[in-house]
């Protein structure tokens, strides 16, 4: 689908992608701060960067080499006009080939892997493992296939191809000898505020009963079940 930015089914998401990185800096800091490399000269790449907000935020805090790539010309043009540097229109796989092996400190893939088929996801991880430095990270956010909202996450967006679950991502990563899972968690709204306290309580109750019900249908322990609509998966490259 061409022009993803302007033709996206969700006006809210399109609006978010057009915000300035300054307005979303707090969110980005919560998501990525623990995985940012010490040196500001480090190479950080946002794959499927859309309008480049994450790249703009990274550059604003000192990572001038941070870059992003997206196949949508209009999204990249929007980011460049907003003053964000190092944004490129390209196919992700072809762009990865432009990097030297073991040259990247951090890859960020936020809301992008669900647009790949399973085979392309495998191909992507093979390339990331090759290009990532040892002790570097791959940060991924993607819809959770076992969430109560999984059907909406899959079929609510025409461009989605596949989803992963905590179990399937562990199976997948086990085939990459130098990649280990450093963190695997659900992504949710951490601060609902007092006005939405009743929603938090209601959601917590539903989550509890869903975990119990799901555990009766599967071999999973309720503690292993993640119910949030998105997964955050952080991979670290280490020597096998």
Can you give a write-up of this model?
This protein has 240 residues and is an alpha/beta fold. The chain contains 10 helices and 7 strands. The protein has helices at 4-7, 11-17, 25-32, 53-60, 73-81, 92-96, 118-131, 150-155, 166-173, 197-217; strands spanning 44-47, 67-70, 87-89, 104-110, 132-143, 179-187, 230-237. The chain has a 7-stranded mixed beta sheet with strand order 3-2-1-4-5-7-6, with helices on both faces. Helix 4 (53-60) links the parallel strand 1 (44-47) and strand 2. The model has no long low-confidence stretch (mean pLDDT 90).
Q: Which features would summarize this protein structure in a list?
A:
7 strands, 10 helices, 240 residues, alpha/beta
């Amino acid at each position: 689908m061409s022009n993803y930015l302007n033709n996206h089914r969700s006006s809210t998401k399109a609006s978010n992608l057009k915000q300035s990185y300054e307005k979303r800096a707090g969110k980005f800091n919560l998501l990525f701060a623990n995985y940012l490399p010490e040196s500001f000269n480090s190479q950080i790449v946002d794959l499927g960067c859309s309008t480049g907000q994450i790249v703009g935020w990274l550059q604003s805090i000192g990572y001038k080499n941070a870059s992003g790539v997206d196949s949508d010309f209009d999204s990249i043009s929007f980011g460049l006009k907003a003053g964000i540097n190092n944004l490129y229109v390209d196919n992700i796989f072809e762009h990865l080939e432009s990097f030297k092996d073991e040259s990247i400190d951090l890859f960020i893939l936020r809301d992008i892997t669900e647009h790949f088929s399973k085979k392309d996801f495998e191909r992507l991880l093979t390339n990331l493992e090759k290009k990532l430095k040892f002790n570097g990270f791959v940060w991924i956010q993607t819809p959770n296939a076992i969430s109560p909202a999984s059907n909406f996450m899959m079929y609510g967006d025409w461009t989605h191809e596949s989803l992963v679950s905590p179990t399937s991502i562990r199976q997948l990563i086990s085939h990459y000898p130098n990649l280990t899972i450093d963190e695997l968690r659900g992504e949710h709204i951490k601060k609902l505020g007092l006005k939405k306290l009743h929603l938090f309580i209601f959601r917590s109750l539903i989550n509890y009963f869903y975990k119990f019900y799901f555990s009766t249908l599967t071999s999973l322990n309720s503690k292993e079940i993640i119910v949030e609509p998105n997964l955050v998966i952080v991979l670290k490259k280490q020597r096998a």
